[in-house]
Specification:
The chain is an alpha+beta fold. It is 33% helix and 23% strand. The chain starts with a helix and ends with a strand.
């Protein structure tokens, strides 16, 4: 085995050992102190908006996995280079490991809410990497190019280090995921709603369309948290302050004593492409935020409600939208269960009619009344609009794009949405023919999507099907194609179908 390859493998093994022990230490120092997570968080916060939009468009709800995987690959290449350098100029290689440690420490301690202890996993990991690298490179009792036993001894040591590193890292990540929030959620019995939830009308579900109520496991997740925060409800508080006459701070126990209601609300991500699946409908249990804001008594001019997550993320909601009578909730339940941790347990905000980036704060711990002119929430400096009402849109769920069908009647179905306004009409066009009105299924309220169906008499050939919706305000969605930035995508969803 060539010396450079051996040294490179030693470098990769040393990096693996560093990450493995850091994941274990992050169980005690905080999940966001793990080097991959900490550095990934910095990348998320500072990457150009176009790169982030590309990642969401390409990987969807797997964007975080892609980021962590990409970061690990880059670190592996870096570690390989450090190992090769160590075989020639060891002081320079040690400096490379020190740089790895410094970057990890700086990323961890600068995360919102982090302290000095957050730098411990990266510091210990870097120190271990130095020891492992020196140990592996010291296994040179004989030439590895000519001595099979030396090669075997070296590869065995590398394998042991890698196995221990993977085991330690996996255990650390598993223990982190079994934090206080996960355990508290298992023990939580949700309070009863003060009124029964709305009944889903018969016929709301159309064959071929997605489920009218999205299961929790299938509900989209787009946020900036690489690791879902583990917020222990026993220690949770919500602070309402800023431009108010009566600042409020409530505990979890006090929140559970407030009146609770259940409402079906469809949420949509502003990053959703035309025809995309970053949208879902669920039954939410929560207390009306309007009552809390009324108690706080906002001052004149406080036109923005800034919500803050425990990880420092912010969004800004128009104050008027939270006090105009819509079912804006501090939610604690989702589809009859406590909120899943990845969807904001113990408490998140739900606001019908607004994209999530301006309303749906997960793991919420703070509400500040302020002005749009005085504060820009997380996404605004990154090029997104300060206010994000959901646009009237529609989607074809069946047939799928590039599907094949036989001539004759073909079922066409999908969903349309215009939350807090409602859907009045859905139309389907085949090729460039006339628009034909689809049949609308009933819905719980104007705050949810509405399913539709249409029967198309298909003839042989390749055909393009399009859909458009009209809301109850009389607006028909535009054909103009626009990307999600800065305030939501527009255009008609279309699919191509082969009939033979």
């Amino acid at each position: 085995m060539r010396t450079s390859i051996r040294a490179g493998l030693a470098g990769v093994a040393a990096a693996a050992a560093a990450l493995g022990v850091a994941e274990l230490l992050a169980v005690f120092a905080g999940a966001r102190s793990a080097p991959l997570v900490a550095v990934g968080g910095v990348v998320v916060d500072h990457v150009p908006p176009g790169v982030k939009d590309f990642a969401i468009a390409t990987f969807g709800t797997h964007d975080k996995t892609a980021l962590l995987t990409g970061t690990a690959v880059l670190l592996g290449l870096y570690a390989y280079g450090v190992g090769v350098l160590a075989a020639r100029r060891r002081p320079f290689a040690l400096a490379g490991i020190a740089l790895f440690g410094v970057v990890g420490i700086a990323a961890a301690v600068t995360r919102p809410g982090a302290g000095v202890a957050a730098g411990i996993p990266s510091a210990v990991g870097a120190a271990l990497a130095v020891w492992v690298l020196r140990h592996l490179l010291g296994l040179e009792g004989a030439s590895h190019e000519t001595d099979p036993e030396a090669r075997r001894r070296f590869l065995k040591q590398v394998g042991i280090v890698a196995a221990v590193a993977v085991g330690g890292g996996t255990a650390g990540r598993w223990l982190t995921s079994r934090g206080a929030a996960t355990e508290a959620r298992k023990e939580l019995t949700l309070p009863a709603a003060s009124e029964p939830p709305p009944v889903v009308p018969a016929g709301a579900q159309v064959p071929g369309a997605v489920p009218y109520v999205t299961p929790n496991a299938d509900f989209y997740r787009i946020d900036t948290a690489l690791i879902s925060p583990q917020v222990d409800p026993a220690n949770w508080t919500l602070k309402i302050h800023g431009m108010v006459r009566n600042p409020i701070e409530i505990t979890w126990a006090e929140l559970l004593q407030r009146p609770m209601v259940e409402r079906y609300v469809t949420l949509a991500c502003v990053s959703n492409e035309v025809g995309g699946d970053l949208i879902g409908n669920a039954l939410w249990l929560g207390t009306p935020i309007k009552a809390l804001l009324d108690e706080a008594d906002p001052l004149p001019g406080a036109d923005q409600v800034v919500q803050r997550s425990t990880d420092g993320w912010t969004c800004g909601t128009p104050t008027a939208a939270l006090r105009d009578g819509r079912d804006a909730l501090l939610a604690i339940g989702m589809n009859g269960e406590p909120l899943p941790v990845e969807h904001g347990f113990p408490v998140r905000m739900i606001v019908p009619g607004l994209y999530g980036y301006v309303s749906a704060c997960k793991w919420i711990t703070e509400i500040e009344l302020t002005r749009f002119s005085d504060f820009d929430a997380y996404w605004v400096p990154r090029g997104w609009s300060a206010q994000g009402p959901i646009k009237t849109e529609s989607r074809i769920d069946t047939p799928r794009d590039h599907a094949s069908r036989k001539p004759g009647p073909v079922a066409v179905a999908g969903v349309a949405w215009a939350q807090h306004r409602g859907i009045a009409k859905v139309e389907v066009q085949v090729d460039d023919g006339a628009w034909e009105t689809a049949s609308l299924a009933p819905a719980v309220s104007d705050d949810t999507w509405r399913q539709w169906k249409h029967t198309w008499t298909a003839s042989s050939g390749e055909h393009v099907l399009r859909v458009r919706a009209t809301d109850l305000d009389g607006y028909t969605q535009t054909s103009d194609l626009a990307d999600p930035a800065p305030d939501g995508a527009t255009g008609w969803h279309q699919v191509t179908v082969s009939v033979s």
